[in-house]
Amino acid sequence: MQHSDEIENDVVQELRLRSWARSHYVPPENRGDDLHPIVLDEMQRRDAEILSGTSSPAREWSQRLSIGTGNTDGAQTTAVHETLA
User: Fold this and answer.
1) In whole angstroms, what is the distance from residue 55 CA to residue 5 CA?
2) Among 81, 73, 14, which Cα is nearest to 41's?
3) I want to staple 38 with a disulfide (CB 3.0 to 4.6 A). Which of 3, 16, 17, 30 is the partner?
4) Residues 16 and 39 sit within 8 Å (Cβ to Cβ)
């Protein structure tokens, strides 16, 4: 039986892998066969979102940031990051 610390670490590790998969998304035709199963699962979920037209929360947030200027290419978010750096 796993201790609660081990289970918590497994959940944290899974969330990190899923987040990494979203940040480093690669189209199916360009993916290698050496991906971690959780990374592959998350990328396949993203594939389904793309096919269904469902937008990701990060994409929606990015679009909200660019509404004020009419800019949809992410330049405003880049400017914000440059200002903070």
Assistant:
1) 34
2) 14
3) 17
4) no
Which residue type, as a one-letter code, is found at position 55?
Answer: S
- pLDDT tens, residue by residue, 36-74: 999 999 999 999 999 988 766 666 555 555 554 444 444
**Alpha carbons 19 and 40: distance in angstroms, whole number:** 12
Which residues fall within 8 angstroms of residue 36, CB to CB, at 6 or more apart?
17
Written as one string, the DSSP assignment of the chain is: ---HHHHHHHHHHHHHHHHHHHHT---GGG--TT--HHHHHHHHHHHHHHHHTPPPHHHHHHHHHHGGGT--SSHHHHHHHHHH-
Token output for 79: 């400017």
